[in-house]
Design a protein that fits this description.
The chain has 318 residues and is of the alpha/beta class. It has helices at residues 3-20, 34-45, 50-70, 84-93, 107-120, 163-176, 192-198, 205-221, 280-288; strands spanning 24-25, 75-79, 99-104, 125-126, 129-130, 149-153, 181-187, 230-237, 242-249, 253-257, 260-264, 269-276, 293-299, 305-311. Bound molecules: N,N,N-trimethyl-histidine.
Length: 318
C-alpha cells in the first residue's frame, strides 16, 4: 500500500471516530493538506499572529548562543518539516552540523523541504524521516563521529498536545535521545486579548484554515459537510491556559461518511485544536517530570514567546 493510501485510511478512521464521539473532536494534524498548509503560511504573516515572527526574531538574535549549546558536528532532528526558515537560521550559526533529520507525516512535504535545504547546504547530510511524532517514533542510527543529538521542536506545536501527551512526548525524547538535548519553542501565557486576536484575525484566514478541515474531508473522504453551515470558533480558556478551536454547527444537520449518518445539533461543535500557552517555569517543570533538565532559555522583551534548552541525561546503567 502506498503511503498516501495509509494516510487516507488513517484520516478516514480518525474522522469516523471524531464524529462518533461526544463531544466530537479530531486531531489538528489534519489541518495540513496542501490548502491548509498554504493557509497556515498566511496565518504566520498576519499582523495579529505574533508567534512565528517573534520566534524567528529570537532565533535570529540568539542563534549563536543556541549553536554554542549544540557544540560542533551536532546531529539535528526536527519534529515537523514545517518551516525551513527556522532551521536555516540555526544551521547557519552551527559549527559543521553533521546531519539534519526532518521528521514529518507528510512524505510529499518532507521531500520538497529536504531537496531545497540540501541545495542550500550541499555539505550537510539531509535525511528525511516519514514518521508521526504525535505517536512514538524510531530514529535513524547514530552517525559515527557526530556530536550531540539535538531535537528541535519549534512553533509551539507542543501546545497542540494535552498535558498527558506532552509528558509522553518528553518521555519519548528522554528514551530516544539520551545524552542529547531538546530545543523547544513555546507560546507564553499573556493577555487574553492578544491571544484572542491571534486566533480571530480580521481577514478571516484562521477561520478559513479551520473550515478547510471540512472541505478536506469532503475532498478526500467523500463527506458532505455543508461548509457554510459551520462557523469558526476560537476562544481562550484561561483556567486551562489554552486556545480552543472548534467548528460550530449553525443548524441541526446530518453529515455522511462511508454510508453512515452523523448528526450535529445546532450549536454543537467539532473540536479541532488545543493551543496551550505556557510559562517558562511550567515547561521546565513538565520536562523535569520526564527526566529532562532545564538549561538556558530565550524570550523576547514582551515575553510573548520562549525558546528553551532542555538537556537529556544519559540513561542510567544498571
Ligand atoms: C502550529 C499549532 C502552533 O497553535 O498557534 C494557528 C496552529 N492554529 N492558528 C497554533 C494555529 C490556529 C499553531 N501551531
Amino acid at each position: 500500500m502506498t503511503l498516501a493510501a495509509t494516510e487516507d485510511l488513517q484520516f478516514m478512521h480518525d474522522m469516523q471516530t471524531a464524529l462518533s464521539q461526544t463531544p466530537k473532536s479530531i486531531s489538528p494534524k489534519y489541518f495540513y493538506d496542501q490548502a491548509g498548509s498554504a493557509l497556515f503560511d498566511r496565518i504566520c504573516e498576519l499582523p495579529e499572529y505574533y508567534p512565528t515572527r517573534t520566534e524567528l526574531t529570537l532565533l535570529q538574535t540568539h542563534a549563536g548562543a543556541m549553536a554554542e549549546c549544540m557544540g560542533a558536528h551536532a546531529d539535528i532532528l526536527e519534529f515537523g518539516a514545517g518551516s525551513l526558515q527556522k532551521i536555516r537560521l540555526l544551521l547557519k550559526a552551527m559549527q559543521q552540523p553533521a546531519r539534519y533529520v526532518p521528521m514529518d507525516i507528510s512524505g510529499a512535504h518532507l521531500e520538497v523541504a529536504s531537496l531545497s535545504l540540501q541545495a542550500e547546504f550541499p555539505n550537510l547530510r539531509v535525511q528525511p524521516l516519514v514518521a508521526d511524532y504525535t505517536q512514538d517514533w524510531q530514529l535513524p542510527t547514530a552517525l559515527p563521529g557526530a556530536g550531540q543529538r539535538v531535537a528541535f521542536f519549534p512553533g509551539s506545536t507542543i501546545g497542540n498536545f494535552s498535558p498527558a501527551q506532552a509528558h509522553a512526548f518528553f518521555q519519548n525524547c528522554a528514551r530516544h535521545l539520551p545524552g542529547g538535548a531538546l530545543l523547544l519553542g513555546v507560546d507564553l501565557v499573556k493577555s487574553p486579548d492578544v491571544l484572542h486576536a491571534a486566533y480571530n484575525d480580521a481577514q478571516g484566514v484562521t477561520a478559513a484554515f479551520n473550515l478547510n478541515l471540512l472541505a478536506r474531508a469532503n475532498r478526500e473522504l467523500g463527506c458532505d459537510f455543508e461548509v457554510t453551515q459551520f462557523a469558526h470558533s476560537a476562544f481562550y480558556n484561561a483556567p486551562l491556559q489554552r486556545i480552543e478551536m472548534h467548528l460550530l454547527s449553525l443548524q441541526a444537520q446530518t453529515v455522511h461518511l462511508n454510508g453512515m449518518a452523523y448528526s450535529f445539533a445546532q450549536g454543537e461543535t467539532l473540536h479541532t485544536e488545543y493551543s496551550h500557552k505556557f510559562t517558562i517555569a511550567g515547561v521546565q517543570q513538565a520536562a523535569l517530570a520526564a527526566g529532562l533538565q532545564a538549561g538556558a532559555y530565550w524570550t523576547d522583551p514582551q515575553h510573548h514567546f520562549g525558546l528553551l534548552w532542555l538537556n537529556i541525561p544519559h540513561t542510567q546503567e544498571h
